[in-house]
Amino acid sequence: MNNMKAIGFTTSLPIMEEDSFVLFEKPVPVPAGRELLVKIAAVSVNPVDYKIRQNSLKDKVQDIPKVIGWDAVGIVEATGEGVTLFKKGDRVFYAGDITKDGTNQEYQLVDERIVGFAPEGISIAAAAAMPLTALTAYELLFDRMRLSAERDKGKSILIIGGAGGVGSVAIQIAKKILGLTVIATASRESSVDWCKKMGADHVVDHKDLLTNMKTIGFEQVDFIIDLVDVNQYWEAFVQLIKPQGQIGSISDPTQPVNLRQLKSKSVSFHWELMFTRAMFHTDDMIAQHHILNTVAEWLKKGEILSTVNTVLNGFTVANVQEAHRQLESGTTIGKLVIRY
């Protein structure tokens, strides 16, 4: 086992360009320390993928293609000498580390502390759809905002961007695990239906948010999570959030966020980036191992559903390009998976 196939890019090109992705060969890496070598069976594609493809190699070309992708299911092929959580042959799932080579390759090294045992009883594609979005939603709701079913059951949450990857999981955790009253935003009939399927109590159009919220009887809510664009909705958030409420966001604002507007209500604001623990090797990095195992248990028991909605078969340049094209359109619902 010397070389493997990988798909990457040498410069940032529009997705319709033939060379926006290229197939190439590279050596199969050897795990060390707490690393696992995983033989990948399926991956899912997230907005972070196309954002990095569009921006990371602008105005430059590198000789060795850059490999991206952050969501995978696979089998442990080999382990580093410091591994204690897994053994060869284990089926695992994970989102990975944004500072390392991604999942768009046949084999990948990943630190065992950010890996979980893949859920039993669901398909490989269904499992591949879940790690990044489930980690993001879980960390935002539990680790950042510190919500709990015991204390917060029955309270209201507004989820901006309910039909996307993170929104699809956040609706389910908020409703089925935390027992919140869930209001999600969606504007197309298909995305409204999807949000309801995920468990949303109400779905409102994000256009003219304040009026649409008032129409369903909510002038204010206890919690808001923004999965789209905090700048676009900020003025509405300031009005909609209850005194002593909480706002969480994963978006990338292009303008400063005026937190002073939250002071009179003593509202707290939380950022969430799923890659933080791996990027900074935080003391609690292993939390992602435990979160993924919890999510796998929820999936196995049917307490939450996989958000897979589209599956492309085959590890090919054409399929990676098609996945990016669909995500860039901004109209995808749920998650898109590529089976190897």
Task: Please give a structural write-up.
The chain has 340 residues and is α/β, with parallel strands linked by helices. It folds into 2 domains: 3-130 and 276-339, Quinone Oxidoreductase, Chain A, domain 1, CATH 3.90.180; 133-271, NAD(P)-binding Rossmann-like Domain (Rossmann fold). The chain is 31% helix and 25% strand. The chain contains 11 helices and 15 strands. The protein has helices at 47-55, 124-128, 131-144, 149-152, 165-177, 189-198, 209-215, 230-240, 276-279, 287-301, 317-328, and strands at residues 3-8, 22-27, 35-45, 72-79, 91-94, 107-111, 115-117, 156-160, 181-185, 202-204, 221-226, 241-249, 268-271, 308-313, 335-339. Helix 3 crosses helix 10 (287-301). The radius of gyration is 20 Å and the shape is globular.
> What is the string of helix and strand elements?
EEEHEEEEHHHEHEHEHEHEEHHEHE
Could you state the CATH homologous superfamily of the largest domain?
Medium-chain alcohol dehydrogenases, catalytic domain
Shape: globular
Supply the number of helical segments: 11
Count of folded domains = 2
CATH class descriptor of the largest domain: Alpha Beta
Q: What percent of residues adopt helix (DSSP H or I)?
A: 25-40%
Distance between the termini: 18 Å
Q: Gyration radius, to the nearest Å?
A: 20 Å
Structural class by SSE content: alpha/beta
The average pLDDT value, as a whole number, equals 97
Largest sheet: 7 strands, mixed
Number of strands: 15
Domain Enoyl reductase (ER): 17-338
Protein name: Zinc-type alcohol dehydrogenase-like protein
Subcellular location: Cytoplasm
Keywords: Cytoplasm, Metal-binding, NADP, Oxidoreductase, RNA-binding, Zinc
